[in-house]
Amino acid sequence: MNTPRPRNLFQKIWESHLVQPETAELPAILYVDLHLVHEVTSPQAFSQLRERGLRVRRPERTLATMDHSTPTLPRDVRGHFPMADAEAAAQLSQLEANCREFGVELHALGSERQGIVHVIGPEFGLTLPGSTIVCGDSHTSTHGAFGALAFGIGTSEVGHVLATQCLLQRRPKTMEVRVEGRLRPGVSAKDIILGIIAQMGVGGGTGHVIEYTGSAIRGLSMEERMTVCNMSIEAGARAGLIAPDDTTFEYLARRPRAPQGEAWDRAVAHWRTLPSDPDATYDAVVTLNANTLEPMLTYGTHPGMGIPVTGTVPAPHQLTDASARDSLERALRYMGLTPGQRLLGQPIDVVFIGSCTNSRLSDLRAAAHVFRGRKVDSRVRALVVPGSQEVKRAAESEGLHDIFRQAGAEWREPGCSMCIAMNGDQARPGQYVVSTSNRNFEGRQGKGSRTFLASPLTAAAAAITGKVTDPRELLR
Ligand SMILES: CC(C)[C@H](C(=O)O)[C@@H](O)C(=O)O
Ligand code: SF4
Fold first, then answer.
1. Does the beta carbon of 358 sit less than 6 angstroms from any atom of ligand 2?
2. Between 391 and which of 123, 179, 337, 386 could a Cys-Cys bridge form, CB atoms 3.0 to 4.6 Å apart?
């Protein structure tokens, strides 16, 4: 008898969703279980359908929300939302019209379950182990935390999936990123992923689907696992995955759209077969030691330019590669930082706690832990933006909003907010932002803005002291 070939998690999901395997000429055709939609990358896709007289193939497997262009201030006295500009307003009303015309469920601005697309999928219990999930958004990798193969697609592909529920894909390679050990107090999931990207570089995962393994990953909650998988794309990877386990099932068991009753039992039995087989292999393996990891901070203009918060900014002359040297020089010029300088003590202007990386309840609790009984430095503007209406309600029921407000921080409505600055929330030119989001590109948080990416603990600590601070100094 032949023993079955050992397979890793990615291979199991890929093979069970193949409508047609790839050939030399043609990519594979992959079935899509869940298609998430938002206002920025869907308008042309719906127009394509309209032009060709097509319908949405599986509206019941399509879910839309408004997040990127939504204002995070409540309705004004006349009951109107304070839109950033006409373009944002048009995107939102267009999504509403498209969803109505094509019969797609929409969680619109002002509704009870609205939120960032990568926050609400898991909340509903729609993000399921072993499934395929796509969205016209690079941070779709977030859903990989549940052992789903989830990745971002372009606008024309959004059209393909709307019309056919399938996608043309070349099979990616696989990479194991093994994180062993235990995080020390003050070190969080965000520091794991910033540490991994600092080590592998922003191109380190190119062409691969990463599976995160090891004791440190197993020890993370679902929300923490989402933070790690969220930034897989910032390492260049196609997607990030974590094998489902009891932590996953426990999270899903309480969700409104997850399978119920007998269907639940059948689902869990299937999900238990998904983890990589003991002898499964990967095309590449990378390791990181959690025991020695420190709170991380980026100093430059891509997420791979990260160092321990206690570290010093690297000097371009230490680099032998000319293009790496040029990009570091340019980054330090943009950031207004000096080679060899320490980051601790660097004055900052804005703190943003939010985004699909770090806007869930546990992130807000971590930040509140630092804010409690303290005041935001008088020179700092601090913005706390929950990832969804559900997160907002949960946080308010614990009184977290009071802690933030009493500290002098702004407590906002859910949305992408200052992660992408296309909704009215932005930093001014030259300002330094300590941000819990995932991208620190030039101008990302407003023209000329300078971003330090960090964990919620590190961001909150900076809000209190007005400068880059080791959060462990403020933990009690
Ligand atoms: C607007 C969208 C296409 C974009 C993405 O794909 O990631 C955004 O969410 C981002 O984070 O830059
Ligand atoms: S929160 Fe930021 S990273 Fe996430 S989907 Fe919105 S804009 Fe993209």
1. no
2. 386
